[in-house]
Amino acid sequence: MNKLLIVGTVAFDAIETPFGKTDKILGGAATYIGLSASFFNLQSAIVSVVGDDFPQEHLDLLTSKNIDISGIEIVKGGKTFFWSGLYHNDLNSRDTLVTELNVLADFQPKVPQNYKDADVVMLGNLHPLVQSSVLDQMEKKPKLVVLDTMNFWMDCALPELLEVIKRVDVITINDEEARQLSGEYSLVKAAAKIQEMGPKYVVIKKGEHGALLFHNREVFFAPALPLEDVFDPTGAGDTFAGGFSGFIAQSENISFGNMKNAIIYGSNLASFCVEKFGTERMETLSKAEVAIRLQQFKSLTQFDIEI
Amino acid sequence: MNKLLIVGTVAFDAIETPFGKTDKILGGAATYIGLSASFFNLQSAIVSVVGDDFPQEHLDLLTSKNIDISGIEIVKGGKTFFWSGLYHNDLNSRDTLVTELNVLADFQPKVPQNYKDADVVMLGNLHPLVQSSVLDQMEKKPKLVVLDTMNFWMDCALPELLEVIKRVDVITINDEEARQLSGEYSLVKAAAKIQEMGPKYVVIKKGEHGALLFHNREVFFAPALPLEDVFDPTGAGDTFAGGFSGFIAQSENISFGNMKNAIIYGSNLASFCVEKFGTERMETLSKAEVAIRLQQFKSLTQFDIEI
């Protein structure tokens, strides 16, 4: 079985949407990536850090999904990273209410020895120096390195971000971030400029409007599945990244054609994530449900014009 | 050859976008619909009205595209409908600067005798009473009636709009209009409610984010082609409608599968329309260019996951 190494936050989230609010619940980029990637046939491990306030049941959940948690450092007397956000009525924008870095402030990632030869590395949203440090620790060049990031690092750690971006094969960012990073409004031009920064593949996430994959002059588009109700977008982007990197790790095929499939798998898994608060939907989701919805993606997008 | 009857404005537009501005140029929903539908193998006619200030060269252009203009009334001493709009930086929103109804204020549409048995009727955006009047004049039930409308009529002629909506097979509106008409935020729920109002098929246009086709519990999505540059969105929705109705008229097949193809053709033609100001791009567009871009739509959306 191929190995997927996941780096990112394991955290507490408190979320408010027009449909309700939560107390501190399980969250974090690596959590969502790990849960999503667990739908594929692979070995995975998370590199992260939590405080000793982090409940054992959350760790047990990850273990129950066959995720290796030996790379999750537990800091004695430390407090786990906490984020709180309020989504607006259209769910497309949100305000961050609280960000407590806590143990994340001094995080030194340690890649477990048996993952230093991982086939795919998924660098979830974190300080670019942490992302770089993980790549430094690899003893074998991974088949594919995927990086997710956000505007926060463009604002406050751009040189470090540009350094790590040089070293990755795939970058996943949203449309506004692609515009900020490239200085181009047109997403086609933005993707071309970002490819010049290093990543041969650029994935631009547009939330409810789907995702675009650019490579050289080729482009592929995966829609978001139109849903009756969206309750909570938290984690959708990470779930997408987990589906994308998990599918690539399972299939060992990094052709553009297979990346199209990976984008579809990512979109498919993300469509479940938003149906309930936090990780709730992903915890109980079955492979059979995933397969049924994949069929919906097919009929949503496939047509038979002969050219 | 099958017959397509087109109803809508033939007009003057003055357009300003971040990329430039135009004087009074050829515009109008029926103009764009007609130019777009001219890429298919069919007979088409426009029912509309202009003043005698309308240049013969614009009428000649329509005739050169094999569009029957005998249903375009020329009002002596009258002035042609004029619209002027200013697009904002992201091109997704615009302000209407001027609307002069002129001859459109008293427009009584007259369907040419030889189009009272048209196979497909495309009711472009106009007062719903004008749209109804055209349907009243048909002597044979059309195979398909498509209606395009906008929020303006929902605000000021809702009862008349609901009456004509009852009589059509397909409605095309944008996402905000679908929400306004249905009172539902979720587009899935909005489309379900609108289907209860009459149209068995609901097309929701999302501009640069593509278009959705709903029928019973089925849904299909066509992306907009990612473009390097968009100069002027004016007429894109009408060009889409012309491609949709033109393809259906040519193929005589109103199955859901064929409507998927029609949506792709509509999106394909609309992707050209926005590349230059006004009707400029559509006037010189060749069938070969259309075929090449159709291939791009295919690689943009088609994937090969076996389920």
Automatic annotation (TrEMBL), chains A, B:
GO cellular component terms attached to this protein's record: cytosol
Domain of life: Bacteria
Gene3D superfamilies for this protein: 3.40.1190.20
Membrane-spanning intervals of the chain: none
Signal sequence annotation: none
Pfam family of the protein (one): PfkB
Boundaries of every Carbohydrate kinase PfkB domain copy: 21-281
Any GO molecular function: kinase activity
Keywords, comma-separated and alphabetical: Kinase, Transferase
UniProt-listed PANTHER family: RIBOKINASE, SUGAR KINASE
Official protein name in the record: Sugar kinase
Annotated source species: Flavobacterium pectinovorum
